[in-house]
Amino acid sequence: LVRITPRFSPQNRLAAKLLGQRKDFPTRLFLASGGADDPPIVRGIQEFDRQLDSRRYRFFDKQSRIIDGEKHAGLKAEGMNRGLRHVFALLAASSG
Prior knowledge:
Radius of gyration: 14 Å
Order of helices and strands: EHEHEHH
Helix content: 40-55%
Oligomer: single chain
Low-confidence stretches: none
Structural class: alpha/beta
Largest sheet: 3 strands, parallel
Distance between the termini: 22 Å
Strand content: 25-35%
Mean pLDDT: 82
């Protein structure tokens, strides 16, 4: 799963709360935000990132990145590139 500058609303927080009840979360996730994005957006992503880390899910591999100097539209190419590399890293390694 690749999320580039996701918005966080009460519904997202409810989903995060429900995920908090799980022990396993077999997912590879990449989160990205632009370092020059609106501060509330960046803080929301960082908060969600910390929530995920605190839950210590089994089988969960997350990477997050703040891409310096970029805003929402400017980080899509780099964010998707890095995100897809992360999400498919195991598949790429096993195919040689």
